[in-house]
Amino acid sequence: MSTSDDTKDRGEKGDTLLEIKGLKIEGQSDDQWHEIVHGIDLSLNRGEVLGLIGESGAGKSTIGLAAMGFARPGCRITAGEIIFDGRDLAKATEAEKRPMRGVRIAYVAQSAAASFNPAHKLIQQFTEGPVQHNVRSQSEAEADGIELFERLQLPDPETIGFRYPHQVSGGQLQRAMTAMAMACRPDLIIFDEPTTALDVTTQIEVLAAIRGIVEQFNTAAIYITHDLAVVAQMADKIMVLRYGNLVEEADTRTMLSDPKKKYTKSLWAVRSFTTDVVGIGAGEKPLFQVKNVTAGYGPVDVLKNVSLDIYKKRTVAIVGESGSGKSTTARVITGLLPPRPGKGEILYNGEALPADYRKRSRDQLRHAQMIYQMPDTAINPRQRIRDIIGRPLEFYLGVTGAKKEERIRDLLKLIELEPDEFIDRFPGELSGGQKQRICIARALSAEPEFIICDEVTSALDQIVAEGILRLLDDLQKKLELAYMFITHDIATVRAIADEVVVMLQGEIVEAAPRDEMFQPPHHEYTEILLSSVPEMDPDWLDNVLEERKDKAPTIELAGN
Q1: 72-116: pLDDT as tens digits
Q2: What distance in Å separates the CA atoms of residue 13 and residue 361, rounded to the nearest whole number?
C-alpha cells in the first residue's frame, strides 16, 4: 500500500518537469470576460525552484494554480500548453487531473485559516490525502505526519496534530499546511506565500526545512511571494510579473545584482516611508492601560503580569514570535479573553473596564476596534461593502437611512476608494489591498479612539503595504487615533512605531521608543529578532544557519 519516498522514481535532477507555453487566462467581471494573463511561457526542471514575484494583481497565484491545470472560479484558461511530465494539463479532463493533484502536484495556500476544515483535527486532515490516494496506510500516514511536523519546527510534534485548527497559532497552521502538501512527496509544489504568517525567527527554520525537502526529494517548486528577501533565499531563478505580463526573467543572482527593467528596479528599491516619533506630553495620561495582566487558555498562562500604556495619537508596536502573547494581549484589551480573576485589569481613561466584553456597554466597546490580518476571513463574503461598513454605524451609533448612506460614502472616500465604484461590490470583487481598506473603514465606522492592527500588512505586497501604512498614518493624524500594531515585520516597526514592545513567552522583555530600540545594546531575544530579518543576499540564509549551528541557545524560544 505504501509508496517509499526513497524508491519513488522522480527522474534525474535537471530534467524538465513543467513547461508552460503561451498561457492565456481570462477573468470574469460584470458578466464580461477579459484577459488577465497574456501569453506567459515558463520552464521548470526537477529539483529547481522558480520564484514568481510582482505586486498584487500581477497574476502570480493565477499562474501558479494554472500549473496544476486549475483555474479558480471566475477564471478560465483560454490558450496555451501546460506540459507536466509529458502530459498537457490544459487538455486533460478533470477526471485525469484529479488523481495527480495532492499526489504529484501539491499547493500550499497563503491563508491557512481559510484552507483548513475547522471541524477536523490537524492529523486527520494530514492523513486524508495519502490514505485516499493509497500512498500510505492510516498508521504510516500518522507517523509521517509527526515526522514532518517535527521537521517544520512545530512544537510537540507528537501531539499537536490532535488539536483543531483554532487551537494553534496562524504560524503553526501555515506550517501544518506545508506538511500536508508534502505528505505524498509530490514532484511539484506550488508555494503561495507560505511564510507570510510566520515571525522572522520561525521563518528561518521553515525556509530551511522547505529548501531541505525540495533538495532531498528532488522536488520542483514554484515559490510565489512579495517578499524579495525571501525569494532571494529560495529561488534558483526569478520571473517578475506585472498585470499578467512577464517583465523580466533571470537566475536569482543576476536578477538581484543587475535587474534590467525599470519596474524590477522599483521593486528592489528600499521603501522610504517612515513617520516621525510622537512623544508623550508633560502630564498626559494614557488612553488605555493594561495593568499587571495574567491571562491564558485553560490551565496555561499565555500572558504573565503584562503592563503597557496606550496614548492618544501614538503607535505602540508589539513584536515577538508566534505564541509570544501579542494577539492574546489584543484579546484581553477588547474583552474577548478576561484576565485571570484578581490578576490584572484594563483601564480606559483611568477607569477599569469590565473584563468580559459581554458586560461592557456599546459605548465602551466601540472605543477599541480591531483590524485583522486576513481580510478574506474577517469580512463576510456574502455581504456588499455598504452592509459591511454600515452595520457598525447602526449597531454602535444608531445611524440609519440617508445619514447612514452618507456616512458610508464618506468612509469610502476616507480610505481612498470611490464610493460609486465600490459601495455595491462584494469582497470577492476586490484586491487584497482594497479588502484591507474596507476592514479599516469598518473599524472607523464605530468612531473609535483606539485601533488594534493585527498583522494588517503581512499578506500584502510591499507596494500595497506601504499604501496601507501611509493611509493609517494619515488617518491617525486626522482623527487623533491611538494604534497598537501587532507585527513580526521589523520594517513595519521601523516605519510606523512610536514605541516598541518586545514579547517572549507571554512576558514583555524590552520596551523603548523606536529610535532607542534599534540602537544597541539589546535584550538577547531582541538581538535574535533583529538578526533574523532576511536580507537581499542569496547567501544570507546559509550564513545565518551556519552562524547559529554551533551556538548553544542561551534563551529558550517560545514554541510558536
Answers
A1: 888 999 999 999 999 999 999 999 999 999 999 999 987 777 789
A2: 64
